[in-house]
Design a protein that fits this description.
Layout lengths: L1 H22 L6 H20 L2 H17 L10 H22 L4 H10 L4 H11 L3 H12 L4 H8 L3 H21 L13
Helix pairs in contact: 2-3, 2-4, 3-4, 4-8, 7-9, 8-9
Length: about 190
């Protein structure tokens, strides 16, 4: 446990040093930030946008915005939380644009059915299919990224108590189909508090 805490502290120090380099003009150092967070940001975007291509494009846009606004990063939250905040806002904007363009639900589902998801990924998709965007974000940030309610609240511009209540309702909502689902849902997927 102590060694893990030390490695987390070392990682935080390393990230702070890289951010400082980028903020003082070394734009090449930003490649390290992309390398460290790209996969997680793409996965987060994928579960919100439900398209691998859109998720990859969104991640590129998010990292560009991050670089453009790195001077605003003030170390009050982790760099990871700051990037997720940018990702949250960007994905919400994309979803609003998509809805504004009247992409029909049928067309969206047809595209989704063409994807070839198997095993664990398919189970997660089944669970997430019945959630709205906000619920998916809370679930992903809490269960997969293991953010605190305070961090999620900061990312989503909500109060921590609101996030906690929404997460508890979400857990209850997910536990019902999991209990009914039989073998399909017996794969481990942490939805605990």
């Amino acid at each position: 446990m102590k060694e893990s805490r030390r490695s987390d502290e070392n990682f935080d120090i390393e990230i702070k040093n890289v951010v400082y380099k980028v903020q003082t003009g070394d734009k090449q150092a930003y490649a390290y930030i992309i390398q460290m967070f790209q996969r997680r940001i793409v996965v987060y975007c994928y579960y919100l946008l439900k398209s691998q291509e859109e998720a990859e494009d969104a991640a590129q846009d998010i990292f560009i915005k991050g670089l453009e606004h790195i001077h605003r990063y003030a170390h009050t939250a982790s760099l990871s939380a700051w990037l997720y905040k940018i990702a949250h806002n960007h994905c919400v904007d994309l979803i609003k644009k998509r809805n504004k363009n009247h992409q029909s639900l049928v067309e969206y589902k047809e595209n989704r059915e063409q994807e070839q998801d198997h095993g664990y990924t398919e189970i997660i998709h089944d669970l997430l299919e019945h959630l709205n965007v906000e619920e998916r974000q809370i679930l992903l940030l809490r269960s997969l990224e293991e953010y605190s309610y305070d961090e999620i609240a900061a990312i989503m511009d909500l109060k921590p108590t609101t996030v906690r209540k929404k997460y508890e309702r979400l857990r209850k909502k997910l536990i019902k189909p999991m209990n009914k689902g039989g073998e399909v849902y017996e794969q481990p997927f942490r939805i605990g508090g």
